[in-house]
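Ticket #4471: structure output looks truncated?

Reporter: J.K.
Steps to reproduce: submitted the chain below (336 residues) through the standard prediction queue, then opened the result file.
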Amino acid sequence: MAGESRLGAVRLACAGMAAASCLWAAACSDGGVTTECTGSEVRECTGDGDCAGEERCDEGRWGDCECFEQSGTGGMGGEGGTAPERLGAPCDSDGDCTAPATCVGPGATAFLGGGLARGACLVDCTEGAAACDAFSNAVCVDTSPPGSEGERAFCFEGCRFGSLEQSKCEGRTDAACERLEGGDGDEGFCRPMCAADGDCGDGRVCDPRLGACIPETSELPEFELGAACVTESESEDCAGVCLGAAGETGVCTARCVFGSREPCGDAAERSACLLTTPGGTVGDVGYCVALCDCDGDCTTSETGCVPLGDATLEAVFGARGVCAVGGEGGAAGTLA
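Returned output as attached by the reporter:
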């Protein structure tokens, strides 16, 4: 996580309630045979002895409920061996967290050199991943600033990228499931992210490149959602995330919670979280796009208004398409 990777492929998909409907419909096979679940979906459950746990989808059917590891009497699990707590809850101070977790707030520098919008209860695992063992479903993630030589790591709540869960990432609107670099397939962590300066409090602003809160005195280039950019380049042509195939023309965007119907913070009044990487679903890391009705609504000659192609989505988002980069050397516009 110390270096920000560029994504080679994205897909346009349903969002919000519409997405849930689409994905559920896809779980039903032809011939009237309905599956219970799809893909690598995970959900919370209650197992033997009323333990808290989770069950995973296996070939269209829910598997056995696997109880979370117990911590015995006392300690993190509490008396009687109750399930250990999960990380990532919002906080204002360390007193809002269960030790050894502490509150990493907007004024911190622990997350890629910045702080976290609305705060989050996390555990420092710089000295080793064993620090995460006291919490349920926790993973140790490198949070060192990009290009830095120092190492910093924190325990975050783990998640399964591509799984449909109502409580994914504690249901927070400022955190989404992102695949772990070098992880096993759909293994991920709940990545916090700010969307607007107002998420960060007094004296701090949101850095759209990282989704972290940084001092307002920081010199940030102006962020223009939907502007054309060149991925993997050293130029300052995108103050956010340049999304596209390596070395090719992409589109400037910022991370968001896929499935949200809300505009993408300060990015643009007409925007939505409508892009995700293959396999992603509601609650996973997505990417903002500018909404449009015609090519003239898009900011540069390299981008054009690509139709949503779905009447329901058009009604939900109040737009006919999204601004995107087109084919070789030309605009993507198909809506005049």
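Triage note (M.O.): checked the attachment and the full token line is present. The two ends are 41 Å apart (CA to CA).
Status: closed, working as intended.
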